[in-house]
Amino acid sequence: MSARSTLNQFLLSRVGDDTSSRDLCSTITSIAEAGINLSKLISRHSLARYDEAAGAQNPDGDTQKPLNIVANNVFEEALYNAPVAYLASAEKSEAVPLNPKGTLAVAINPLDSSTNIESNMSIGTIFSILRFDSGRVFEGSIGERQVAAGFLVYGPQTSLVLTCGKGTHTFTLEHVGSEFLLVSENIRIPTAQRELAINTLNYRFWDSSIRYFIDDCISGEDGPLGVNYRMRWNASLVAEAYRILVWGGVFLYPGDSRTGFEKGRFRLLYDALPLAFIVEQAGGAASDGNQIILDIEVTSLHERIPLIFGSRDKVAEVMDYISGDFTANTRFPLFQNPSLLRR
Question: How many angstroms separate the CA atoms of 127 and 38, rounded?
Fold first, then answer.
């Protein structure tokens, strides 16, 4: 059995050796090394004390857990020596200037789903690397300036999912040597799968089109879709994304009628854009319900957005419901009960 490539070996062979490529490799390596350090801190979370970091609020108004601040500091310190001009973090209200000679900018959610750590469930880091634009660093058509994106999952294994615009690849941390090793190259999201991830307790707050879709999925083979679905919900964005990359299906977090959730839960810059890049490079799709995520312009650092991503066929199916193309023919008793059409 041949030895697996390390992350550094993979980057050298796939990204290139010109100045911009070296800057990108250096930045990815810095993020990966910070992720390894954070993984070690997470593994001893219950034994450590971070009291001095507790109590503040992040820009979304959520109380910051101590480990969120620690995670932010780990990545910020790691990127000081990288060719990164600015760092935008979900834990900071403003972008932080780092290297005045930097050619790149990084947007990062340092610790996604941190509340899961108390129940020993998967949590993670999501990041996007952009070409530096001194005029509009984190505004405008970010999707066009993304040169890489990825996420780390801190769970039973510490995994790294990465795209540099030429496919999506997965790596797993080998703890003895403290290196990420290539596990899967150019992964493709399976199609024709019957899994969906959504928090059904929010059902009463959704628009009717989303409720119709979920109703029809729950109806299974007796409903308009004619197949039985399996529902998954981990309350961890990185865990959901990793599962969809492996098994297929669709993830939904639509906007709803609750105050503060009209535009969904996740941030366009820190969550949706990097995941959309990763998913599309794996053959999937990502939408806000109206347009492709990568086409949406960023107007503020912490704006929220509805998020739907997964297998291209399943995302298209959800979009048919939202547009009304499918539901127009399925919301009447004659069509809801196939037995009425039988003699």
Answer: 14
Number of domains into which the chain is organized: 2
246 shares its domain with 327: yes
Task: Give tens-digit pLDDT for 255-314.
Answer: 999 999 999 999 999 999 999 999 999 999 999 999 999 999 999 999 999 999 999 999
The answer to whether residue 83 scores a pLDDT higher than 90 is yes
Read out DSSP for 150-167? EEEEESSSEEEEEESSS-
Q: Residue 120, exposed/middle/buried by CB under 10 A (0-12, 13-18, 19+)?
A: exposed
pLDDT tens, 90-124? 999 999 999 999 999 999 999 988 776 676 778 99
Which among 275, 251, 249 is positioned nearest to 197, based on CA atoms?
A: 251
In a domain, 189, yes or no: no
Are 73 and 202 in a shared domain?
no
Tokens 């932080």, located at residue = 96
- CA 332 – CA 78 distance, rounded (Å): 58
